[in-house]
Amino acid sequence: MDVPWYQLLSAAVALAAGVVITWLVVRSQQRKILIQSSVSALQVPALLQWELSTLKGRASRIPQLESALAASVEALNAANERKAMLEADVQRLQELERARASAAVGLVTSSRMTPALRERVGRLGAELTADRAALAAIAIRFK
């Protein structure tokens, strides 16, 4: 292996330069990562503090939400009671409608019978008047 000494020296210098450049690049990357880690570490307490304040704000609304829920449940119960009353009224309306229909049929039947009944009442009234007159005549005869 006959390699001239200047080529070996060039290779050694190039290798040393590569090592130095690699070390500088790696060192720079390490610094960036360290700085980012430091920033992240500083942000964690602030982030946790923000989340804690958000959760405290939400927790402070719990009594208000519970009272709103209770009012809503009460309103719902009242609405359900009103609905039950209305449904009972609907059932009653159906019964009343049947009674009205029956009364309407009775009215029509009565209306049809009215002229015949008037005629009969008139005839019976005339017979009664005639019978009274006859009875009065008989009573006068026997007196």
Helix/strand layout:
Layout: H1 5-60, H2 62-141
How does this model look, in words?
The chain is mainly α and 143 residues long. The chain is 95% helix and 0% strand. It has 2 helices and no strands. It has helices spanning 5-60, 62-141. The longest helix has 80 residues, at 62-141. The radius of gyration is 57 Å and the shape is rod-shaped.
- Average pLDDT rating: 87
Which value, in Å, is the CA radius of gyration? 57 Å
How many E strands? Answer: 0
Strand content: under 5%
Domain count, please report it.
1
Secondary structure: helix percent: over 70%
Biggest sheet record = none
What is the CA–CA distance across the termini? Answer: 185 Å
Helix-strand sequence: HH
Structural class: mainly alpha
Descriptive labels:
2 helices; mainly alpha; 143 residues
Question: What can be said about this structure in brief?
Answer:
The chain has 143 residues and is an all-alpha fold. 95% of the residues lie in helices and 0% in strands.
